[in-house]
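so my prof wants the structure for this chain in the tokens format not the other one, which i didnt know existed until like an hour ago. anyway here's the sequence
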Amino acid sequence: MKRALLGVVAAGLLVVGAGSAVADSWHRMGSLNTAGASFLEGRYRFNPPQRNHGSFEWNGKLSDTRSDGHNVYMLVRVESHPWVRYEGKQGKTVVLHHSNWDGAQRYTEDAEIRVCRNRGSLRPDNCSYTKKFTHRR
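here's what i got, hopefully its the right format
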């Protein structure tokens, strides 16, 4: 009887642990593209409160796809705060891995991300559509 009870408890702990691992796992973001810039192999996850400030963590490859002398950048925002800008390199591909969070909250629930090409001060920048992510705990 004790062995059967221990087996049930062990199986329950295994199921709970597997559920937690799935909740913290990386998800594919897909690609973001605009004229002259692309963000490829994008992945993201919403961290639990005890890891990295409960942040929205993301990574991928930011590419400048044109040799036109303009730079590319990523825009990310969480919980409707102002956009945070991450610069790329002209004519190159750079790997980005960042975490964004709101210091007043225990964990992040909403995030938005997009890729842009800086076209200088006289013309507006080209940006991809904004991809939105929501995580409800």
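also thought this was worth mentioning. Confidence is low (pLDDT under 50) at residues 13-22.
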